[in-house]
Design goal:
Number of strands: 3
Structural class: mainly alpha
Number of helices: 8
CATH architecture of the largest domain: Orthogonal Bundle
Largest sheet: 3 strands, antiparallel
CATH superfamily of the largest domain: Winged helix-like DNA-binding domain superfamily/Winged helix DNA-binding domain
CATH topology of the largest domain: Arc Repressor Mutant, subunit A
Strand content: 5-15%
Distance between the termini: 41 Å
Shape: globular
CATH class of the largest domain: Mainly Alpha
Strand order of the largest sheet: 1-3-2
Order of helices and strands: HHHEHHEEHHH
Radius of gyration: 21 Å
């Protein structure tokens, strides 16, 4: 008891069965002017639904800590890259300042970050982690592993999806692997 057992690697047959069960984009009838309006013909729908599902999986871990998923990814960006401007944070997280500003205010009120005007350009707001913001990392360090065990993708499938999603976001913006 107390020992973790290593999960068995799925067999090739199990992997093929999983792939066969996944739906494919339907062929559309070119004579039907409304064929492209079918829900099952939309690439955007499974992306949207999967995104919501993944984000909702974080809720039981983040809610007790008093943060949202969006605040969590702000922390991840700041822990990874250090202090940055609101503009740079918006670019990194693919969010607009209207979305980011209210949650940054809440994070500042909670004592996790400071927001201050740049000395070079007063229009620029700089975001800095406080000691409490840096220490908060300890409270969430096990969340990625917990969530990773909930997503039923092999490492290879996850890597393919990761690259494809970054391609959709605008090209080759995905962080490079150590090897390449």
């Amino acid at each position: 008891m107390g020992e973790r057992t290593k999960a068995k690697k799925p067999t090739a047959e199990a992997e093929q069965k999983k792939q066969d069960a996944a739906p494919e984009l339907p062929d559309l009838d070119p004579a039907d002017p409304y064929a492209a309006l079918r829900l099952d013909a939309q690439l955007c729908f499974p992306l949207y639904a999967a995104s919501r599902k993944i984000v909702n999986m974080y809720t039981p871990y983040l809610k007790p800590l008093g943060i949202t998923y969006t605040q969590y990814i702000v922390f991840l960006a700041l822990w990874q890259d250090g202090d940055m401007t609101v503009g740079d944070l918006c670019k990194k997280l693919y969010l607009d300042s209207g979305t980011l500003t209210p949650l940054l205010k809440k994070m500042e009120q909670a004592g996790y970050i400071t927001r201050c005007r740049s000395h070079q350009d007063e229009r620029v707001v700089e975001i800095c982690l406080t000691d409490a913001g840096r220490e908060f990392r300890e409270k969430v360090k096990d969340i990625p592993a917990a969530l990773g065990s909930c997503v039923r993708l092999s490492r290879e499938e996850a890597q393919v999806m990761y690259r494809m999603l970054y391609c959709l976001l605008g090209g080759n913006e995905a962080p490079q692997d150590e090897e390449g």
